[in-house]
C-alpha cells in the first residue's frame, strides 16, 4: 500500500464541527469493518447513521470513542482530541451489551453517568442523586428509580441508558440503536429527549434502523456500508439512488 | 457452647479461627466482583497457579517462612492471569479453554516441582504439600498478622475504588467511554484477587480456594439486589463459614479445617439457594404454585358466573361445562364457597354479591387485556 500524503487542512480554526473523522479504517480480523471513512457532523443537529446489518455502524461509534483499536485515521471532537473533549461526549451503548441481572437500581445506573465528573475516590452523594433523579424524570422513569434493573422492560432499560447519558450533560451524544425493540411510548419519550437536546444546541449522532421514520426524526443522514456512501442534509441524501447503493439493488423501499 | 468459648481460651484455635475468618471476608468481597464479571474460573486459575510459585520460592530461597512462599504463590497466580489475557488477545482460543489449559499447566508444573523437592534430600521440605489442601492447624499469630495486612490492603483498595469497580463490572465499555483506565482497573482488581488467594493458601489450599471466592458471593446474591449489601453479606457468609469450619474441626480430632470451612460455605450457599426470599427456589416454587392456584380459581369463578347468569349453577352443570367429574365440580364449588364467592341455594348454588363483583372485575380486566393485544398487533 502506498501511503497517501496527508494534506493537513483540519478545521482547527473557526467553529470546529462536533465530530470530524478522516480516513478512518478499522480491521477486526482480515476484512475491514470500516474503510477510509470521512465524516463531518454538523453542530446542533440530529444526525442518523443508517446502513444494513454488519455495515460497521456500531464499529464507527466505538472507534471514534476509542473503544476498539483503529488501523488508521484521525478523529477530532470540536477540534480537540478525544482525551481533551472527553467530558463533552456522551454515549448510549446498545442495550444488549450489559447483563441486566446486575445487582443495582435504575437510579444507580443513571448516577454512573456522573462518575467521570466526580473523579477518583469521591462517592456520589445527595447532589448526584438529585441530578440523576432529574434525568430519570426527563425520560418519564422517576417512578422506577429504586427498581432493580432486571425488573424493567426492554424499553424502560433503554430509557435508563438514555438518562445515564443525559446525566453526563455532554455536548455531543452517540446513541447506538436507541429505538431498537421499543414500543410507541418509549419511542415517543426518546424522540422527546432528542428534540430537547437539539433545543439546547447539542449534537446527537444516532444509529437508526427504520427507513420509514428516519426522514421525520433526523436532520442529517449518513449512509454507511463499510464506506460512507453518502452524507449530508436529509433532503439531499435520502434518495432512492443512495439507498440502493447502500443496501444493494434488491432492496425494496417506498418513497 | 463450651466449644465456642474455646475460641477465646485456646491459642491455636483462636489463630485458626481468625485466619479462616479473614479468608472468608477477603475472599467474600473480591469474589463478588469475580462472580459479577463472570470470572469465577479466573479465580480458580489464580489459586491453582500459586502452587508452582510456592515451590519455586522454596527452591530459590530455601526458606519455609509462610510469607515468602505466599508471595511466590501470588506472583505465579498473577503471571497465570496475565498469560491468559495474552493468549486471549493473540489467539482464537475460547476463554474457557484458555483458562482451563492455564490452570492444568500451572498446577501440573506445581505438582512436578513438589515431587522434585520431596525427592531431593532436603530435610526442611516437609510441609509444602500442605498448600494443596491447606493445613490451618499450622497457622500461628504471625500468619494471622500477615493475613490481616494482605487482606486489609485488598479491602482498603476495594473501598477506595468502589464506584470504579462497580462500573467496570457492570458496563466496561461505558467506563472506557468516560475515560476510566479500564485496563489498569482490570489489572488492579485481578491483583486484589491474588491477595485474597494468598490469604487463603494456608487455610484451604490451592484446590479449594476458588470455592471461597465463588460460594459466598453466589450465596449473597440470593438475598439482595444491591451491590453494597451483596458485598457485606458475602463477607459475612465467608467469615461465618471460616469460623464454623475452624470450630467443627476443633471438636473432632483429625478433621481438616480447610475442607470443613469449604463445606460450611457450601451449606450456607445451599440454604441461600433454597430459602432466600428474593430468589430462593422454595419461595419461587411456592409463589408459582400460589399464582397458578389463583388463576385456576378465577377461571372457575368465571365459569360459575356464566352458569349463574342462566340460573343453573349446580354441580352437574359445572361439571358439564368444565368437562370434569361431578365429584371435582363439587370440590370446586366448595372452594368457591370457602372464598365467599358462591352460596347454596334451593336450586343449587348462586354467586354471592362479592362473587359477582369479583367476576365483573375479572371480565373487565380480561377485556382490557384482549383489547391491548389486538391493538398492538
Ligand atoms: N469484536 C469483533 N470482532 C470481530 N469482528 C467484529 C467484531 N465486532 C464487529 N465485527 C464485524 O465487523 C462488522 C461490522 O460490525 P458492526 O457491529 O459495526 O455492524 P453494525 O452496522 O453495527 O450492524 P448491526 O446493524 O447488526 O448492529 C461485521 O461484519 C461484524 O461481524
Ligand atoms: Mg450495531
UniProtKB/TrEMBL annotation, chain A:
Belongs to the ABC transporter superfamily. Residues 19-251 form the ABC transporter domain. InterPro entries: AAA+_ATPase (IPR003593), ABC_transporter-like_ATP-bd (IPR003439), ABC_transporter-like_CS (IPR017871), Metal_Ion_Import_ABC (IPR050153), P-loop_NTPase (IPR027417). This is ABC transporter related protein. CDD domains: ABC_Metallic_Cations. Pfam families: ABC_tran (PF00005). Gene3D superfamilies: P-loop containing nucleotide triphosphate hydrolases. Keywords: ATP-binding, Nucleotide-binding, Transport.
TrEMBL record, chain B:
The chain crosses the membrane at residues 12-35, 41-60, 67-85, 97-117, 138-162, 188-215, 227-248, 260-282. Pfam families: ABC-3 (PF00950). It is found in: Cell membrane. Its main location: membrane. It is a multi-pass membrane protein. InterPro entries: ABC_BtuC-like, ABC_TroCD. Keywords: Cell membrane, Membrane, Transmembrane, Transmembrane helix, Transport. CDD domains: TM_ABC_iron-siderophores_like. PANTHER family: ABC-TRANSPORTER METAL-BINDING PROTEIN, METAL TRANSPORT SYSTEM MEMBRANE PROTEIN CT_069-RELATED. Belongs to the ABC-3 integral membrane protein family. This is ABC-3 protein. It comes from Meiothermus taiwanensis WR-220. The lineage of its organism: Bacteria, Thermotogati, Deinococcota, Deinococci, Thermales.
Amino acid at each position: 500500500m502506498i501511503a497517501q500524503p496527508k494534506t493537513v487542512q483540519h478545521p482547527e480554526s473557526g467553529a470546529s464541527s462536533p465530530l470530524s473523522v478522516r480516513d478512518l479504517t478499522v480491521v477486526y480480523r482480515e476484512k475491514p469493518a470500516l474503510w477510509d471513512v470521512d465524516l463531518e457532523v454538523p453542530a446542533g443537529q440530529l444526525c442518523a447513521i443508517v446502513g444494513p446489518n454488519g455495515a460497521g455502524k456500531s464499529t464507527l461509534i466505538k472507534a471514534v470513542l476509542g473503544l476498539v483499536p483503529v488501523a488508521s485515521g484521525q478523529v477530532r471532537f470540536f477540534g480537540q482530541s478525544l482525551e481533551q473533549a472527553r467530558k463533552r461526549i456522551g454515549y448510549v451503548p446498545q442495550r444488549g451489551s450489559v447483563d441486566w441481572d446486575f445487582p443495582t437500581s435504575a437510579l444507580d445506573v443513571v448516577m454512573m453517568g456522573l462518575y467521570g465528573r466526580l473523579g477518583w475516590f469521591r462517592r456520589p452523594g445527595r447532589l448526584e442523586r438529585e441530578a440523576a433523579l432529574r434525568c430519570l424524570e426527563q425520560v418519564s422513569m422517576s417512578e422506577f428509580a429504586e427498581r432493580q434493573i432486571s425488573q424493567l422492560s426492554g424499553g424502560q432499560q433503554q430509557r435508563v441508558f438514555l438518562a445515564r447519558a443525559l446525566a453526563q450533560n455532554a455536548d455531543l451524544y452517540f446513541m447506538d440503536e436507541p429505538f431498537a425493540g421499543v414500543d410507541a411510548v418509549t419511542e415517543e419519550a426518546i424522540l422527546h429527549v432528542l428534540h430537547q437536546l437539539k433545543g439546547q444546541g447539542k449534537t446527537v449522532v444516532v444509529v437508526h434502523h427504520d427507513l420509514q421514520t428516519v426522514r421525520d426524526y433526523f436532520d442529517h443522514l449518513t449512509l454507511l456500508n463499510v464506506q460512507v456512501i453518502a452524507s449530508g442534509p436529509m433532503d439531499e441524501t435520502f434518495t432512492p439512488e443512495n439507498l440502493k447503493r447502500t443496501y444493494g439493488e434488491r432492496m425494496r423501499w417506498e418513497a | 457452647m463450651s466449644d465456642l468459648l474455646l475460641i477465646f481460651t485456646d491459642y491455636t484455635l483462636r489463630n485458626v479461627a481468625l485466619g479462616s475468618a479473614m479468608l472468608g471476608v477477603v475472599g467474600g468481597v473480591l469474589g463478588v466482583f469475580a462472580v459479577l464479571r463472570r470470572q469465577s474460573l479466573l479465580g480458580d486459575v489464580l489459586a491453582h497457579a500459586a502452587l508452582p510459585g510456592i515451590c519455586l520460592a522454596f527452591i530459590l530461597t530455601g526458606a519455609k517462612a509462610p510469607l515468602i512462599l505466599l508471595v511466590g504463590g501470588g506472583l505465579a497466580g498473577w503471571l497465570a492471569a496475565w498469560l491468559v489475557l495474552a493468549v486471549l488477545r493473540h489467539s482464537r482460543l475460547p476463554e474457557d479453554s484458555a483458562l482451563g489449559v492455564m490452570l492444568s499447566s500451572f498446577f501440573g508444573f506445581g505438582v512436578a516441582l513438589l515431587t522434585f523437592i520431596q525427592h531431593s534430600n532436603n530435610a526442611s521440605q516437609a510441609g509444602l504439600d500442605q498448600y494443596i489442601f491447606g493445613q490451618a492447624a499450622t497457622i500461628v499469630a504471625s500468619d494471622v498478622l500477615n493475613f490481616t495486612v494482605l487482606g486489609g490492603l485488598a479491602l482498603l483498595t476495594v473501598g477506595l475504588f468502589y464506584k470504579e469497580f462497580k462500573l467496570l463490572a457492570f458496563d466496561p465499555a461505558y467506563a472506557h467511554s468516560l475515560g476510566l483506565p479500564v485496563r489498569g482497573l482490570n489489572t488492579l482488581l485481578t491483583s486484589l484477587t491474588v491477595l485474597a488467594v494468598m490469604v487463603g493458601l494456608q487455610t484451604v489450599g490451592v484446590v479449594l480456594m476458588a470455592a471461597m471466592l465463588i460460594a459466598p458471593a453466589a450465596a449473597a446474591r440470593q438475598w439482595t439486589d444491591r451491590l453494597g449489601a451483596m458485598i457485606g453479606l458475602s463477607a459475612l457468609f465467608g467469615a461465618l463459614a471460616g469460623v464454623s469450619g475452624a470450630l467443627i474441626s476443633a471438636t473432632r480430632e483429625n478433621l481438616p479445617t480447610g475442607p470443613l470451612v469449604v463445606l460450611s460455605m457450601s451449606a450456607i450457599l445451599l440454604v441461600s439457594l433454597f430459602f432466600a426470599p428474593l430468589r430462593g427456589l422454595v419461595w419461587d416454587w411456592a409463589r408459582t404454585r400460589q399464582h397458578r392456584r389463583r388463576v385456576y380459581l378465577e377461571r372457575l369463578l368465571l365459569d360459575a358466573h356464566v352458569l349463574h347468569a342462566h340460573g343453573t349453577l349446580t354441580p352437574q352443570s359445572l361439571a358439564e361445562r368444565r368437562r370434569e367429574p361431578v365429584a371435582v365440580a363439587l370440590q370446586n364449588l366448595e372452594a368457591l364457597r370457602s372464598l365467599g364467592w358462591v352460596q347454596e341455594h334451593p336450586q343449587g348454588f348462586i354467586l354471592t354479591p362479592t362473587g359477582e363483583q369479583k367476576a365483573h372485575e375479572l371480565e373487565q380486566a380480561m377485556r382490557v387485556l384482549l383489547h391491548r393485544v389486538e391493538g398492538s398487533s
